[in-house]
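pasting for the record
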Amino acid sequence: MFKQAIDKRVAVFVAPGLEEIEGLTVVDLLFRAGIPCDTVAITPERQVTSSHEVTIVCDRSIADEGFSFDDYDMLVLPGGIPGTPNLRSCEPLCRALLDHAEKGLPLAAICAAPSILAELGLLAGRRATSNPGFQHVLDEHGAQLLSEEPVVVDGPFVTSQGAGTAMLFALEIVRHYLGDDAVERVRAGVVLR
């Protein structure tokens, strides 16, 4: 049963071709921590198919009547191919990322998706990481690349390398909102040693 721990809400954006582990792991661990979280389709349809042919039915779509990016404190971008290019081509989402960054609100991206933040100019001068195949994009756009780190936090930005680091990525989002004790509680609950 979900026991809400904070009033703020997180959105995990779901694009066709996403890496499902990177999105759903965040949703799972935030649920365990009591952090409200919605899966949000970038397509008009709420049903989205991942890069591994897993169908996800999202809570909301950006095309829903009354949908607002302002309903969310943190915006989370899972990676995957072609999920990441699909997120990058979603103009309303990219505008929202820029707006969130301008307001100093937190943004999180994993795998190939940190390249979106880099291309938007949001990681210039910031420490960050991504999937090794996309690290050159961060480097080309002025990020301080920490290529060996599984997760990097720099101010309001959380970046991570990929499916294998998804739990650590999600735990840093938990830490952002609830601190170390909550991270240790969630780690114990999922038997992450």
